[in-house]
Recover the amino acids of this structure.
């Protein structure tokens, strides 16, 4: 297998998966087998791509040339390969869990839900592998359209306006800010291709660079930067498998990856011309992290609480990416922090949301207050829930700890101690909204009427939660090798 | 023997483009039977489309050729050949789709309806290849009156159609008066009615010529449903849930916009009046984008929504030609293709299920999956979604606008796309995420031939969006031969 073929497989397998799942809705066993099998296949190809990149191989595929000098093209780079491997790997666990939830809750139109989950995974993969701004924009739009049916899945009076808000926010911001920024970049540089070191490096004055940065960051609303974050709480109306896809595996991570790619390949690490806008945006995302964590604290529905909690974590990704634009030697540290944070967010959020989904499927409980003591009757699920909460908070040795450590290092190293303070404050507030919840679930007295389903949680519902929780430990042993793996994306500018 | 006839037909292709539909119209009236007349009309429209496409490929692919004088002198230029091919193709697809609605207005009037559609096509193609301003006005009025007649034929379905026809008649009358007056003023200022004389003439009375050209632009803008002079469009198409709507909402509007692009190419090329015409077009275009977008966002009738979105798209066409550069004209031609494709997909998808109000779209995705797919693709193109022809057209406009320093035009394109997100998203949400309400839940009968053209066009919207090479080359070649063929 060549890297190009593997990339075709990673991008195409979810599309075929979606078609097959829609065409073969029954028997459910075969449908679920297809869903899980294709997810596993895509993850295997993604792992192969990581191996290929580690051995210095490259790959570039062009699907179409819709405009002169502009290709719809995808390329393997360390960032894309790593993110795809993590997300598709978690996607396998999610595929198993989604099949379990669809059966346990007897979701309406399960085939449609699974199909759009697969399409959303294809979308985030395309975002990660995009070779230029046009391809990123196409993948971004496709992902928004693929995720829209997930939010609207229930089709009731609550889901429809939420889905409208979801789509309107994502598409409007991308058309209103992202697209103009792309056009402006094209007008300046004559190319949309990503370049290590930055397409705009040496080509723009400070004013243009600052305005462009604001346009890009606001345009990539999937990263949930205020005030473009309304789609995220709106998505809470979806069924739990949809929430996992949107908040942990596809849409929210795609926002982080998009911002990271733009900062790395369009602006370039340490681009001092954009430092003012970068600092202003760091203030915005820092305050946003604090406010999101506070709002999460006020929410009693677990879906809403986790949505705001994920938003705070996603903003930490953006903060890391923006820190890389500060002058000095800590730019790569910011990028690395952002990359780690995406991995940590995906692992932790997937675990939490799958845990909440399992709980809702077998107990019918979605209120935070009703979680007390559930860990006594669902020990595996809530063990995973507690580990993921610790990772979100930033407790060592879980994934979130390394990401926050690098984030605070980058902020302090760049002379923005207040940014480090904001990140630390958000971590404390995350503890406030997740810590007591996990502790109460594990320590309080077990409820006597916990199970709605007499047979409790099936292995399809419990196993993915605990395995995803175990994934949050992965960074403990792989941080250094990950840094070496990702180094090529910032080396070009940092070396001199 | 046959090759000799083919060579003769090729030599007189512009004439054939006009005459074939006219002969077809006469024959459909003679045949009488609805189905037979439809077959005759399909053949005539097919011949016209083949001639137009073949001629455009010859003209835009290489050097031009001399056109025989045939009484009313013809003069083919880059824009004319490109737009005529597009118009003839749209006419052929329209005729094909109309087959599904033959009995909607009664089998007895079907031949007349088909003849009127062919007359619309013939009239507008005539306006695209005519040399003389008076001949252009005559051709435009032929097409326009045929359009009015087509709307009137549907009056038996309700008073709405009659109201639409009346509005068309009154608005079109104003437009015709503008055009005639403008032609006279230009002739007075330049000493000639010939359109190709405009860029070359030493115009003494600048203001008179500029006013005349502006009046012709306004007259064509009225017929092209450019906002805010588009009130007739919503009234005419809003109560026409049959495939006849394609003849008005697409064919007629496309013809007027094409004629407007062609005339503007000559007017802008005239150094004495070019700036004034460019400013007029820019103001009209900006107004049309804004008004059309706002009205489309607020529309509650799918057919009206499409008409308003078309006005917004027409605004983009006007902005493109206001740039006055070859890049701008190429962008305008791309936008004409994008408009035709999106409008045909939307109107065709709606006509297949007789959809009028947006409520009727609820659950349409389940009741009529293919028609819904056509509407979805059309809506995505109107949004300017990537990999659709709508994106391509807008990108070319933005590229040309930014190149000329017209950032505000680029901003207006973004506004049009943003509005498209809202109204297009609303259509998709209704079709796929709402249950059909009781009144329409049981409606069937949408699996008909009417779907075929809408689907073909919808698929073409994406296909061309992904691989637009030939279309971009044709538009670029047409824009380089704006005011006459290279010898």
């Amino acid at each position: 297998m060549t890297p190009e073929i593997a990339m075709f497989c990673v991008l195409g397998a979810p599309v075929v998966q979606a078609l097959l799942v829609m065409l073969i809705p029954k028997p459910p066993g075969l449908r679920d087998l297809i869903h899980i099998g294709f997810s596993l296949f895509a993850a295997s190809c993604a792992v192969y791509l990581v191996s290929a990149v580690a051995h210095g191989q490259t790959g570039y595929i062009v699907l179409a040339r819709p405009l002169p000098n502009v290709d719809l093209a995808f390329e393997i780079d360390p960032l894309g390969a790593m993110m795809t491997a993590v997300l598709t790997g978690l996607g396998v666990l999610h595929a198993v869990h989604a099949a379990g939830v669809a059966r346990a809750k007897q979701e309406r139109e399960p085939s449609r839900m699974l199909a759009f989950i697969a399409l959303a995974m294809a979308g985030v993969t395309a975002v990660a592998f995009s070779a230029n701004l046009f391809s990123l924009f196409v993948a971004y739009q496709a992902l928004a359209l693929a995720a829209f049916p997930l939010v609207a899945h229930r089709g009731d009076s609550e889901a429809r306006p939420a889905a409208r808000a979801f789509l309107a926010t994502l598409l409007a911001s991308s058309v209103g800010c992202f697209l103009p920024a792309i056009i402006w970049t094209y007008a300046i540089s004559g190319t949309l291709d990503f370049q290590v070191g930055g397409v705009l490096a040496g080509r723009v004055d400070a004013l243009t660079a600052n305005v462009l940065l604001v346009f890009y960051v606001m345009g990539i609303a999937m990263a949930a930067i205020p005030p473009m974050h309304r789609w995220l709480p709106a998505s809470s109306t979806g069924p739990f498998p949809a929430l996992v896809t949107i908040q942990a595996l596809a849409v929210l991570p795609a926002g982080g990856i998009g911002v990271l790619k733009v900062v790395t390949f369009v602006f370039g690490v340490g681009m001092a011309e954009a430092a003012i806008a970068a600092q202003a945006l760091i203030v915005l995302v820092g305050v946003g992290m604090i406010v999101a964590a506070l709002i999460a604290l006020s929410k009693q529905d677990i879906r809403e609480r986790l949505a705001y909690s994920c938003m705070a974590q996603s903003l930490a990704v953006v903060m890391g990416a923006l820190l890389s634009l500060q002058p000095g030697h800590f730019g790569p540290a910011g990028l690395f922090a952002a990359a780690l944070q995406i991995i940590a967010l995906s692992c932790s959020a997937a675990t939490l949301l799958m845990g909440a989904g399992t709980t809702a499927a077998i107990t019918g409980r979605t209120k935070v207050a009703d979680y007390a003591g559930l860990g006594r009757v669902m020990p595996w699920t809530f063990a995973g829930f507690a580990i993921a909460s610790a990772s979100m908070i930033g407790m060592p040795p879980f994934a979130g700890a390394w990401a926050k450590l690098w984030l605070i290092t980058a902020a302090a190293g760049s002379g923005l101690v207040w940014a480090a303070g904001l990140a630390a404050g958000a971590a404390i507030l995350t503890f406030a909204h997740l810590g007591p919840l996990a502790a109460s679930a594990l320590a309080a007295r077990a409820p006597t009427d916990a199970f709605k389903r007499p047979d409790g949680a099936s292995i399809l519902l419990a196993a993915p939660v605990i395995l995803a929780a175990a994934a949050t430990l992965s960074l403990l042993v792989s941080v250094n090798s990950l840094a070496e793996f990702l180094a090529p994306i910032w080396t070009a500018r940092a070396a001199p | 023997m046959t090759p000799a006839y083919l060579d003769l037909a090729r030599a007189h292709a512009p004439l054939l483009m006009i005459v074939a539909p006219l002969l077809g119209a006469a024959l459909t009236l003679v045949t009488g039977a609805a189905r037979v007349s439809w077959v005759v009309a399909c053949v005539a429209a097919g011949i016209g489309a083949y001639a137009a496409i073949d001629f455009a490929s010859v003209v835009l692919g290489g050097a031009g050729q001399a056109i025989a004088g045939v009484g009313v002198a013809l003069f083919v230029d880059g824009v004319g050949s490109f737009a005529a091919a597009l118009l003839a193709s749209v006419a052929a697809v329209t005729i094909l789709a109309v087959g599904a609605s033959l009995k909607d207005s009664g089998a007895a009037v079907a031949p007349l309806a088909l003849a009127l559609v062919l007359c619309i096509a013939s009239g507008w193609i005539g306006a695209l290849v005519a040399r003389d301003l008076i001949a252009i006005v005559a051709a435009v009025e032929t097409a326009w009156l045929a359009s009015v007649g087509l709307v009137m034929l549907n009056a038996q379905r309700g008073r709405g159609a009659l109201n639409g026809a009346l509005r068309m008649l009154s608005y079109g009358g104003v437009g015709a008066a503008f055009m005639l007056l403008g032609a006279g003023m230009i002739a007075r200022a330049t000493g000639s009615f010939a359109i190709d004389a405009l860029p070359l003439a030493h115009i003494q009375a600048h203001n008179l010529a500029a006013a005349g050209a502006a009046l012709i632009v306004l007259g064509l803008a009225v017929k092209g449903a450019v906002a805010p002079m588009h009130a007739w469009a919503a009234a005419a198409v809003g109560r026409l849930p049959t495939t006849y709507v394609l003849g008005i909402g697409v064919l007629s509007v496309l013809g007027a916009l094409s004629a407007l692009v062609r005339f503007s190419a000559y007017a802008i090329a005239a150094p004495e009046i070019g700036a004034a015409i460019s400013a007029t077009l820019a103001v009209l275009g900006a107004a049309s984008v804004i008004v059309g977008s706002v009205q489309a966002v607020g529309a509650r009738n799918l057919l009206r929504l499409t008409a308003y979105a078309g006005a917004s798209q027409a605004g983009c066409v006007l902005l493109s030609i206001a740039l006055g550069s070859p890049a701008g004209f190429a962008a305008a031609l791309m936008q004409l293709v994008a408009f035709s494709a999106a409008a045909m997909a939307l109107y065709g998808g709606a006509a297949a299920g007789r959809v009028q109000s947006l409520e009727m779209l609820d659950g349409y995705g389940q009741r009529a999956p293919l028609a819904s797919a056509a509407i979805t693709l059309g809506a995505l193109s109107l949004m300017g979604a990537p990999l659709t022809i709508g994106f391509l057209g807008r990108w070319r406009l933005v590229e040309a606008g930014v190149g000329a320093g017209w950032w505000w035009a680029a901003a207006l394109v973004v506004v049009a796309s943003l509005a498209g997100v809202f109204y297009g998203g609303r259509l998709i949400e209704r079709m796929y995420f709402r249950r059909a309400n009781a009144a329409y839940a049981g409606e069937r009968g949408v699996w008909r031939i009417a779907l075929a053209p809408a689907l073909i066009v919808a698929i073409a919207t994406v296909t061309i969006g992904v691989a637009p090479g030939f279309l971009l080359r044709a538009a670029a070649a047409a824009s380089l031969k704006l005011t006459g063929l290279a010898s």
Q: What stands out?
A: Residues 224 and 311 of chain A are 6 Å apart (CA to CA). The two ends of chain A are 37 Å apart (CA to CA). Chain A has one domain: 3-494.
